[in-house]
Queue: 2 jobs
Job 1
Amino acid sequence: MIFGFFKKKEEVQEEEPDLEPVRFLGALNGKDANLAANARLADAGLVPAKDLITDAMARRADTLRIEPKGPQAVVTILIDGIAYPSGKLAKAEALAVTQMLKLLAGLDTKQRKVAQSGGIKAEFDSKPYQLMVVVTPLPEAERLTVRIVDLSIKLENPSDLGMSEDLRKKLREITSLKGLLLAVGPPGSGTTTTLYAVLRGTDAYLSSIFTIGDTGGRNLFNITPFETNPGDSLSTTLDRVVRVEANVILIDPIKDAETAKVAISKHEDVMILSEFPAKDAAAGLVQLIEWTGDPKTVAAAFKGIISQKLLRLLCADCKQAYRPNKEFLKKAGLPAEATTLYRKPQATQDPNYEPCRTCGDVGYLGRVAMFELLEPSEEMQQLILKKPDAAAIRAQMKKEKMLTLLQDGLRLVAEGKTALEELQRVFKAPEK
Ligand SMILES: [Zn+2]
């Protein structure tokens, strides 16, 4: 039963226009599967693989995971980043599904002892998808992770990300300067998406914008991917871009002290956008000081460090309004004008309760980001010279009322985009 998730048990018999199962349209690496030569595998694996992926897509999952556990394999799906158990498979079936998806992704099915990754083009519900397949060898069997990317969803502009008008304006001002604008966050928090959104938010008619490195297949209006010469160092390439009068350059994520030093050395010539993983903006600044070993240059070079965390958006079809009392608003740090807040439907014994079909009765649909922005105020620059720790930087941000994650998150609560419970959950969730 593939679509049972959307229905109460007694409704399953009802007539319902069933969705067509997913269609696999070939491997991203061009090595298309030869099903005739792998007939036994296709017999055993194709239908269950299709069922699992279709079910995950119908439930709007962003990830499907099959993990070996003793004589069985555990299936988990992630919807908006939250894990939901999704049944178990017999070991042989899990193996067939894993091998089948490897074959479809153009991977080596004979190899089961090394990590492999690839992608499958797919179509579901008349929408284009990419399935990013990763297999990791574990002692007992391979673990399969399929990231399901809905290509029809575009998070391209700062407004798509839920950025406030204030923050958008500030970022636009920053990108008209020379120096460094960095996006940092925990892995998977969407910093790359944010950087591209910032890039799209800059005025392409006034600025000359280039990218160096991998744009991940993004279509960038008015932004030129810069042709790099094989063998050229990052420093040489940056000099060449600066010579063609670039205003803004997006470079690949900063990985180490060496690339950090190169990026920061060009701060008087151009605005450089980049990213690296860090817990938050303050931790990012500490990392930058450590990499470059040069607090003075960091203080002069960085024009902003933006960080973010993702929150689930309340489902517009089933969110419930409630009136919080004034005392509660004050305690939560919400403005007194926020007289109506929203939350997901509360648990009910009502026999007539109908689960929401839009979000699969999860109460949330899609995600939005809350941001913080660390700015190089005079006091902050003075502090940097003393090689501060992250806590001292955070305290200074607070003192100067720079935008914090919590403050931006509360804005999203006040706007009814998310629930206070969700904000609390994200702040309580352990860092991965
Ligand atoms: Zn809903």
Job 2
Amino acid sequence: MTVPVVDASLAPRRVLFEPVHLRGMTARNRVAISPMQQYSASEGGLANDWHLVHLGRFALGGAGIVFVESTAVEPRGRNTHGDIGLWDDAQVAPLRRVADLLRSQGAVPAIQLGHTGRKGALQTWWHGHGPLNDVDAARGEGPWPVVGPSALPVDTGWPVPSALTEDEIRALVAAWAAAARRAAAAGFDMLEIHGAHGYLIHQFLSPESNQRTDGYGGSAANRQRFALEVARAVRAAWPAERPLAWRISLADLDDGTLPMEAMVGFVGALRDAGVDVLDCSSAAGISSYPANGARVPRGLDFRADDAAEIRRRTGIAIMAVGFILDAHAAQDLVARGAADLIALGREALFNPNWAVHAEQQLQNDPSHALWPRAYRAWLAKRAPLADPVRAAAAARASAPREN
Ligand SMILES: Cc1cc2nc3c(=O)[nH]c(=O)nc-3n(C[C@H](O)[C@H](O)[C@H](O)COP(=O)(O)O)c2cc1C
């Protein structure tokens, strides 16, 4: 594996747009689109035209890596009725369309696999995003039984999960591996395991949600056992030349789940299991949201100093995420060794062309060479016409008004 190392001799303005090599994968730059659920699957958890167009925009917009949203490894592990899945072979073909489209437009097709555990069976955001209820059932979207490490709900009024038996845990680890094989068959070149945000793997890690008394609960090592079994099983099922990422909640540094020494030990074990990239989210999510928001300091949400320390001590590559808005901020995180990849969530929804715009902001691409070739000549003609019009409008807006 080649862990991307920032080359200090690179001109600082280029560092975000250097190609990245991980195992056998090369991405054209370090800008990744973060996994973002769309709650828009067709019947049977199938991806459809929405996913194709939504994700295709980011590839046209110049991102190096585009992640498909959290994709359920079994139906019980869905967040909502609109989640896509990879628990069935029938789900491979529509995702292959997505992977093929992303690759054809120059982006690395990537996908996140997830299981929501006790945080499943929720409404879509446009129906409130609380636990499914009778009103939802009347619409044909009733709840389903959810599972977790212990029979402890997220909060009062939330579904009480059934505690997974050891046989069920073994079956679930196999389901993760089977979904990884389907992701490979669909043509994805990078895979991420969702180990954060209060979902099943995170529920096992946290002493708040995991109060088991068997080999999967109690000590920190026991609580990490399910995570490491999933990591090893997925790595064995996922082609050796394709990189594997893991999403972690760095908020765990604060709440006793994984203080820094334990975090470094756990990440080292993930690395030894074959994880190449640590995707460092700052969201917590063990308790209900939005209440958990109050527990996490917000702002530029990426914990750069913590990530830099984990990167230095474990040698794992870091993907930064969390309110990274600006090309210069992104570039700075890479240049100072806090991150190898920069992931964008909401900012990419707001501006799917973020990457090509960032190249212009950093003055790397005056001739629009990074834009789709069908646009280039026209955009080159546009700039000298549009810039003076914009400048005149700005001057008018700032001029003192005459009464
Ligand atoms: C619409 C939406 C859906 C999301 N779905 C997922 C998901 O499927 N998996 C995940 O790990 N995070 C998910 N997230 C979190 C994002 O990946 C990202 O970590 C978060 O939004 C912070 O980055 P940002 O400040 O750039 O938006 C989602 C965020 C948004 C806005």
